Amino acid sequence: MQELLDLIRIPAVAVTGGPDIDRMAQACAGKCERAGLTARVEATSGHPVVYAEGGPRDATTTLLLYGHYDAFPAADQDGWRTPPFEPVIEGDRIYGRGAGDNKGQFLAHLNAVQWWQRHGGGLPIRVKMILEGEEEFGSRHLPEFIERNRDELAADLCCYSDGPQLGGDRPALLFGVRGALVMEIHADGPAQPLHSGNFGGVVANPILELSRFLGRLVEANGDLTAPGIDVGVPRITEEERALVRDLPLDLADFRARTGGDPLPAAFGEEYYERLLYKPYFNVSGITGGYTGTGMKTLIPTSAMAKVDMRLVGGQDPDDVLASIEKFIDDQGFRGLSVRKMFSQPPSRTPVDHPYADVVAQAVEHGFGHAPVRVPSLAGTTPDYVFTKLLGIPSIMVPFAPADQNHHAPNESMRISLFKKGTAASARLIELLARDGAQRPARPS
Questions:
Q1: What gap in Å lies between CA 419 and CA 407, rounded to an integer?
Q2: Cβ(333)–Cβ(212) under 8 Å?
Q3: pLDDT value at residue 441
């Protein structure tokens, strides 16, 4: 537990970088070494990646673990009861930025490895661990590390812990994530602000043009109208439909958080089918024109919308971007252009993959309850580097509490869940060793 407190005290914030990032990477490498793994800190074009491995080189099964040591910024957030980077224990909770996202979760895996090395007679399988420092702003340089070390990273299964458990701290297995495409939509208007009385009606207003584009692209129910933008959107299988219909939905909690009822119901759609199986276009902010006190009857020179999309199934971010750009041209919108800022493709592992039962048994052993199987996380992680770049199945098992408040003030990790996650991870290693003993060794 002390190691988690020590790691929280290092304010390794993704977007600011600096010496704290390097301190954190070295601290993580030291923890890996204390867990009995051989570790190194490898530079990338961005923040360094910590890589560690251990266990028999001739093992029939290799488990790849992942985590991120960077934390979401805590500056400019009101409501912290305690200093964000000074951990505080209250009952079953450890409060502090990064307690649950993600330091407490990857430490649970490393503690399980350490238990096997010290008390279990050594690791019975090969274990590899990746800890990166850029997850909170898109894991931009993780693919660089993956491509450079592809052969060294060969494994049978990736299993990692991120995000919260379901309501009531119910354990879950997540078999994928939605992708992301982040853009700026720019609208150019006149070369200088113009009097709306002299030029209104004969000069295009960039705010109106941007608004027309957004209204024409996105239907009231969230469906997107650009031709080709839905290429790769998956059809939900009957097995997946049965799974999502059984997922718990706390309407009282939803209303308390959002102030209203779920939108899909108004359009005759299922909540989780809409959330997990359809792309979503979000406008996080719009700027342009004059919004100060008083009035200025001017036609503005420009407008801009910050936009992020969540992608599903086999959607390719670059193809989606191309569809939007073609839609702008075909629809004749004036002065509109798109600037891509970031993208990650969606990722999926089949819910009936043979390793799913093995992971489920380990989680039930650790938490005392059979986990719920969720086809996809609604958010985004760099899951695709495992499924698409390395070509291995990937299953996420959150260890943090449902109310961990990640990215918000008073983030926390429950000590009891931390210990249960450690037990689940230790059990997974045992079960994978048994499973591997029944299979022939992989060719070298």
A1: 23
A2: yes
A3: 52
